[in-house]
Fold:
Amino acid sequence: MNGYELLENESMANHCTFKVGGVASRVYKVFSIEGLENVLKLCTEEGVKPLILGNGSNILISDKGISTPVIIIDKGFDKIQVDGDIIKAEAGAMLSVISRQALENSLTGIEFASGIPGTVGGAVVMNAGAYGGEMINVVKDVDVIMNGERRTLTNQDMNFSYRHSRAMDEEMIVVGVTLKLTPGNKEEISATMNDFNSRRRDKQPLEYPSAGSTFKRPEGYFAGKLIMDSGLAGASVGGAMVSTKHCGFIINNGNATATDIYNLIRNVQATVKDKFGVMLEPEVKLIGEF
Structure:
């Protein structure tokens, strides 16, 4: 075992929360940093740039598939250690699991992430956030691979901004994260997490495959309200639909294709731009040829 598992001609619908996407000729599931380095070495020898994924909770992969190798960092690359108010986690650790560990150790600060269905590595890359919290608020430093070398970058080094980090601009792979939290009251932490998760269940279409909020929040507006006020609640293309529960979500309403979802995203953008003069920017990362 070289620290990874190779899946050939693998449907990417198995690896993203939209449950759509074409075939990748090679998918490497890595279980350690050594496994990751072994796969990166193979890619370098072939002269190809791999696509790095976590839980696939913020992506839309083309029905045409992916020609480059895919590296998935999730289960197996997910160790978590707690030391005082510090949590060290490998990139594949799920935010929900880290949040529970924080609760068990009476640490506050990451309650906002308890219901986000992604890995901590992916969350750092896009500076994920919810309910007023963001990763920038809790990240102490980030372990990465850059130019074939392991490096540790500080919070400031990551250039965090709204749904953005330096990792989106440069070729780096997040392999581990150190979080600095604050000692707190366990009952209060639990109550906050329960409140956030209850609000999420009440207001978001969690019963359908989606990638969470489809669009970034435009300055001075809320994407969901713009979409609702444009009369787009329930609008659909094939099996893709604007959720009537929360218009900021496009959902797979049953047998949607990635093309259905993509076309609905474009329809929503055009309609909102026409009615309000605001161009919504997708929060979901589009991968492949549409």
Remarks:
- The chain is about 25% helix and 25% strand.
- The mean pLDDT is 95.
